[in-house]
Specification:
alpha/beta, 3-stranded antiparallel β-sheet, 11 strands
């Protein structure tokens, strides 16, 4: 049998929001910034390896707990103790009249294992909340207070702790259904373990799998960002002039924007959010003119040359520099053909470079500043999604504020340069690219605190 958890609290304290975040689902129930949004009882299961281990039941909020507690002190309910009065009340006319919403809660109290009492710590512990605790205590079931919206500092938290301690409720959990932190959720499940010792092992397994899933999501998100940066850095666009004309610039920008949009779509799918939960602000895309770095070690290796080889290598590099920087002084087709043929296993990269010189065309690529902004925006998005609760209604706007971020981007510049030298890496996969991707992932992981 699954552990039955009843989620109760005053209207608009975030009960449905809590369940959404625990489920990693944005479509459970209805969430709105108004009182009494939930009007019905709704249950949903949390599973582990196709086995239901917990059942969460959402309830309407208390609307008149003061009036209900006053009714409790009157006949015929006064003569009944403990949970007996709950049964009598739910069979009375009051349960179908002015206290209809409260009756939906009280009916569930006798059928649950643990009561999760959700508190909005932004609100002071008023009398109506204390009456709710008194009503819930009469069910003789464990009560676990959940201090919701606890990510932001509030002056009411200490007072709530004092009030709860007076009622012997010492096992409480700080949580925030909007700003999600896995460690808070872990403590929630550990508290359930202490109240349900017979299910300790099952819950421990569940906690471990949840933690592993969280780490894998983060690792996968970082890998997606590294792939985005390599694709963006290695992309080249052939233009017939530099600077490019407006149409060429627009075509170049469209590709880069498409790469970032695809990256965002994959992230939202990975973290199970909606497509409109995150919006990208305009990215100011700047280009530079691509030039082959003839002295890059990995570029030479791609061409089949070793930096320690003999005169042929030096002669080939010298000829290449002559072609690139001295106005094609080799001059003849025979000379160029020999340069591309002799001693070069893969001359495709170099051939493209010479062709661009001969035809007076230019390769456009992203400059370091734009690549840095792209990295910052990606890191910003991952950090947000990793701590975004599934009940959050506010759209997150990805901006390009790069103030005081030079130290973050600096370790990436060398990797940008490497990727820029390999246009064949764009939307491709090869061993050298994989090695650079691993390096980028390590740098990015160290820059984001999950």
């Amino acid at each position: 049998m699954p552990i039955k958890l009843l989620v109760v609290g005053h209207a608009n304290t975030g009960k449905t929001s809590l369940i959404r975040t625990l489920l990693r689902r944005h479509d459970f129930g209805e969430v709105a910034d108004q009182a009494g949004t939930t009007r019905h009882v709704e249950s949903v299961a949390i599973t582990l390896e196709n086995q239901q281990i917990m059942q969460l039941t959402d309830t309407p909020g208390f609307e008149d707990s003061i009036g209900l507690w006053q009714l409790r002190q009157q006949p015929p309910f006064l003569s009944h103790t403990g949970s007996d009065w709950l049964t009598i009340f739910c069979q009375s006319d009051y349960a179908h009249g002015e206290f209809e919403q409260e009756a939906k809660i009280l009916t569930q109290l006798t059928q649950t294992d643990i009561i999760l009492y959700v508190i909005d710590v932004r609100q002071a512990p008023l009398g109506k909340y204390l009456n709710e605790l008194d009503i819930l205590a009469s069910a003789n079931k464990p009560i676990m207070p959940i201090l919701n919206f606890s990510a932001s500092t509030t002056s009411h938290t200490t007072k709530w702790r004092e009030i709860l301690a007076e009622r012997h409720l010492h096992t409480l959990v700080k949580y925030d259904s909007v700003a999600f932190y896995f460690e808070d959720e872990k403590r929630l499940y550990q508290s359930i373990q202490s109240l349900m010792p017979e299910d300790y092992g099952l819950l421990e397994r569940f906690i471990q799998l949840r933690q592993q899933a969280s780490k894998l999501r983060f690792k996968s998100a970082i890998a997606q960002l590294a792939q985005l940066l390599i694709n963006a850095a290695s992309y080249r666009f052939l233009a017939d002039q530099y600077p490019p004309n407006d149409q060429q610039q627009a075509s170049f920008e469209q590709v880069i924007q498409g790469l970032e949009q695809s990256f965002l779509a994959r992230l939202l799918g990975l973290y199970e959010f909606r497509s409109d939960d995150v919006q990208l602000s305009h990215l100011d895309i700047q280009n530079a003119q691509w030039q082959q770095d003839l002295f890059a070690k990995d570029t030479l290796q791609e061409w089949g040359l070793e930096t320690s080889s003999g005169a042929l290598t030096g002669a080939a590099i010298g000829a290449g520099i002559d072609v690139m920087s001295a106005g094609l002084s080799l001059g003849t087709a025979t000379g160029i053909g020999a340069l591309l043929g002799a001693g070069w296993k893969t001359g495709k990269h170099y051939k493209d470079t010479i062709k661009s010189k001969l035809t007076k065309r230019h390769y456009l690529c992203l400059d370091d500043v734009t690549l840095g902004l792209l990295a910052l925006r990606g890191m910003q998005t991952i950090a947000h999604l990793h701590q975004r609760g599934h009940a959050t209604q506010q759209v997150f706007q990805v901006n390009e504020d790069n103030s005081n971020n030079k130290n973050i981007i600096k370790p990436l510049l060398n990797d940008f340069q490497k990727a820029r030298q390999h246009p064949k890496w764009y939307l491709a996969d090869n061993p050298l690219q994989a090695s650079l991707e691993n390096t980028l992932q390590q740098i990015l992981s160290n820059k984001i605190t999950p």
